[in-house]
Amino acid sequence: MDDVISFLFDFCEKNKIGIQHVSYMNPNDPSVSYEWPRLIILNENWKESFEKPFILAHEIGHVMCGNAFCYYIGNNKAERYNECIANKFAINLLLNYCEQNDLFFESKYKFAETFGIPRKLYYLLEEVKVNE
Q1: Residue 50 has what pLDDT?
Q2: Residue 55: per-residue pLDDT
Q3: What is the pTM of this model?
Q4: SS3 for 102?
Q5: From the centroid of its chain, how far is CA 88?
Q6: N or C: where does the chain have the smaller number of CB atoms within 10 Å of the terminal CB?
Q7: What is the distance between the alpha carbons of residues 40 and 90, in angstroms, rounded to a whole number?
Q8: What mean pLDDT value characterizes the chain?
Q9: Which residues contact 24 (CB under 8 A, 6 or more apart)?
Q10: Where are the alpha helices (H) located in 41-76, listed in sequence order?
Q11: Is residue 41 classed as helix, strand or coil in its secondary structure?
Q12: Distance (Å, whole) CA 82 – CA 65
């Protein structure tokens, strides 16, 4: 897992995105990102630590796609759209990591499990080709 985190940190550095690691947040508080300054505030206490690679890739997606700091409440169509865009970006960024490192998975679900993609987002895997 450290290798993928390093890959994501390098991606941020190359794209001038700062990362602030916050260890005093509540385990239920989501990480957030901002377009300007290009910054991700990463909750180091997140309740599901195995999700950290996906969370970081997701927040990178918000910054890169220009829809950062759009706090998800769940009832606004634009918010759901922005979350979906960030999720798709994150999955593709993690696939890029796999391609660069010749990583292969027996299934899309093993890929998702490896990088902490929540089960509720598995429907997005149908749009993505995993090295099966």
Answers
A1: 96
A2: 97
A3: 0.90
A4: coil
A5: 9
A6: C
A7: 14
A8: 90
A9: 45
A10: 52-65
A11: strand
A12: 9
Number of C-alpha atoms within 13 angstroms, CB side, residue 63?
25
Mark the ranges of the chain whose per-residue pLDDT is less than 70: 68-75, 127-132
What is the per-residue pLDDT for 69? 60
Contact yes or no for 83/72 (Cβ under 8 A): yes
Q: For residue 39, which of 67, 68, 11 has the smallest C-alpha distance?
A: 68
DSSP collapsed to 3 states, 54-121: HHHHHHHHHHHHCCCCCCCCCCCHHHHHHHHHHHHHHHHHHHHHHHHCCCCCCCHHHHHHHHCCCHHH
Backbone angles phi, psi at 77, to 5 degrees: -60, -40
pLDDT of residue 39: 96
Residue 114, CB half-sphere, CA atoms under 13 Å: how many? 20
Tokens representing 120? 């509720």
Compute how many other C-beta atoms are within 10 angstroms of the C-beta atom of residue 38: 17
Q: Return the ∠ at Cα 45 (arms to 68 and 23), rounded to 5°.
A: 85
User: Distance between CA atoms of 123 and 78, rounded to whole angstroms?
Assistant: 19
Tens of pLDDT, residue by residue over 51-86, are 999 999 999 999 999 876 655 555 677 778 889 999
Q: How far apart are CA 88 and CA 124, in angstroms?
A: 7
